[in-house]
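Predict structure. Chain length: 203.
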Amino acid sequence: MDKNGILIILSGPSGSGKDTVLNELIKDRDDVRVSVSMTTRQKRDDEIDGIHYYFVDREYFEKKIADNKMLEFAEYAKNYYGTPKEPVDEMLSNGKAVILKIEVQGAEKIRMLYPDVISIFLMPPSMRVLEERLRSRNTEDEETINHRLVIAREEMKKAPDYDFVVVNDTIESAVEGIKTIISSERLKVKRNKKFISEVINNV
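Prediction complete.
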């Protein structure tokens, strides 16, 4: 097995469908793992601790920050979100394509730490569709939804900073788009390693 994994950022506004797309993506890709983020926000009824997020209190999260055990973290809509470091390093060492589902603030930090990271921005087809998706959750009040829409507009301005933009018009097309990106980057890594090996052997 190739022990050199690849690190992938997936960002997108709340309601863009990141969780749904990732759930479909990993169904038939044994080489792909999704890093489980940590958050201080309340767990929704359909979420499972340790699967969708590690749900913790603010004190615990801040202890992880102080101990330098977070790859990145950001405060979003009055809650912390972040990526625990140890599980990511372990999956990369096992040759996996590791996807970090993170906010745009965290993405900027990861780019500085890992210059070779591949970044993907998941874009809704329109603001109207995004608003419909947020409202269909039936989990948040009007003030929270409006706040998320304001943040979404600002986040989407960052899309050009990413290596790839995938529009989530349908789940199937978005999943296929991300699969194509992963396969292409895998091939690129293999070609580069082969080239380096040939150069070293011919020295």
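Summary: The longest helix spans residues 171-201.
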